[in-house]
């Protein structure tokens, strides 16, 4: 049966890949990826020669049709994203849904688990993580303020992704709506400059004011429960 494999890849350190992921990527007929250059670096490191094709959230219907054709020919396809687990705040959700809907049980959809920034960050944060609320990327405008208000009263650890361009804005909002809450930032996880910064949002804003270089990189924001 043709297979769609959802393959998790490293979030920074290229050694964070499972043996199974490497095998599946090697054996697939095609690797669907966001950026062929980014994935190309990973494939090169593990001497994987499988052809790649780009696929992202704005991909046209024609691309989905091409994928459908390949499955009809019996091919096996691996889906990766630039980093971490595909479909988790990343492209892929729609494709998986479309393949499920179109082929029913005729294409096997399997998960090859591995790194995901949300789990990596939480695991080293020390914050309660038996249950938590993951918000992905927060909306830029509509609903943003409401979310911060809700988050301020949350009895669960709240986790979200933020880009370096918006991290200060997020901290300012947290400082406004949840000034006493403990916030932990997981920055550049698994990379050379990995660090965890902890404090109230106000204290973290001071850290960034003193050391603007830290505003660069990738962030997972974790907010302690009320
Ligand atoms: N699907 C990915 C996953 O499973 O982790 C997430 C992709 S999402 C487009 C990218 C966001 O994840 C970044 O903006 C950042 O918030 C977070 N992220 C990814 N890699 C990270 C890292 N090494 N350190 C901290 N955050 C990271």
Automatic annotation (TrEMBL):
Keywords: Cytoplasm, Methyltransferase, rRNA processing, S-adenosyl-L-methionine, Transferase. It comes from Candidatus Yonathbacteria bacterium RIFCSPHIGHO2_01_FULL_51_10. PANTHER family: RIBOSOMAL RNA SMALL SUBUNIT METHYLTRANSFERASE I. This is Ribosomal RNA small subunit methyltransferase I. Its main location: cytoplasm. Belongs to the methyltransferase superfamily. RsmI family. The lineage of its organism: Bacteria, Candidatus Yonathiibacteriota. GO terms for molecular function: rRNA (cytosine-2'-O-)-methyltransferase activity. Its EC number is 2.1.1.198. InterPro entries: 4pyrrol_Mease, 4pyrrol_Methylase_sf, 4pyrrole_Mease_sub1, 4pyrrole_Mease_sub2, rRNA_ssu_MeTfrase_I, SAM_MeTrfase_RsmI_CS. It is an enzyme of class 2 (transferase). Residues 3-204 form the Tetrapyrrole methylase domain. The gene is rsmI.
